[in-house]
Design a protein that fits this description.
globular; five-stranded parallel sheet; four-stranded antiparallel sheet; alpha/beta
Length: 351
Amino acid sequence: MIGVMSLLEPRRIRSSAVLITLVVAVAACSSGRSDSDVRSPPSATGGVDEAADDVATGNDDSPVTEPPETDPPVTDPTPTESPLDSPPVTDAPDEVDPSVAAVADLPGAQVATVDPAGTDPAAPLPDEVVRPIVFVHGFAGSAQQYESQAMRFVANGYPAEQIVAYDHDGAGLDIESYADGVDGLIDQVLADTGAEQIYLVGHSRGTIVSTRYLEDPVRAAKVAKYVAVDGVPCPDGIVPCVAPNQANNPGQAHVEVATSEESFAMQYEFLVGEAPEVLEIVPQRAPVVISGRAVNFPANTGRQGATLEIWPIDRASGTRLGGTPHASFPIGADGEFGPLVLESGAHYEYS
């Protein structure tokens, strides 16, 4: 089975279920004179001058009188300018939004737009409350299970590049090996970010792996706080810990506890020290940029040798639109693809 997981870049998150149709109205304009602009003056008498006709034929018995004097027509000495003679009016080119310019070199950049009705992330959080977050998924799970929470963290000002996941075999049982893998990822994250400690988050079997990891004092020293999501309880006295679960989130199923707003609120307040400003995932203003992994699920190994094609599709029928994919990526051993730009509100097939 092939799974495709994607994480959004550090922008406010857009729900892919929202479809936006842009209708461009073009106003037609005409230039030139209308029929009422130029008129011939009417006849002064409206008919033939009979007196003049009598003079012309010599049958004039009436006294000769001078024709009445009339004032010459008043004309405007200023020539009338036709709209056709006016220079064309051209609009100044629109300035490119900085968020669009920032993704100009990425695949799919031709569809990059901003959503005026969308929102921007909150202001960045203070450095002293930010540490890298490392998520460990459970049995038959993947990094994708923390994607919605990553979106919420970013929306509240958390740096997206400091939220990572340990993707490992979702069907295996080698807990010691997975704990070693977590340690390797944590060491890499600490080296990349310069941080001294991380925040560890485990879900389901991921809490078993995380607890095993924390039982080693040397490893536990790398963890500032631990979140145990609906799994084994917090280990006693090792690191500060909170445990969102089905008991304190009534009505939520096992996986839902890992993805829900209520669980996020508990995690955010515990890690950051204050309640989050944003809980709901809403459309972002900036262009939509994604990256991710194409994997063999549930092993979560990269789909090496494959080519991932991303096609725009019709919302109603699912039919592919156009004759070529929006983007394509050869997949290596790590399974990674992207980043690339998607059209806001559009629907896509990953094949």
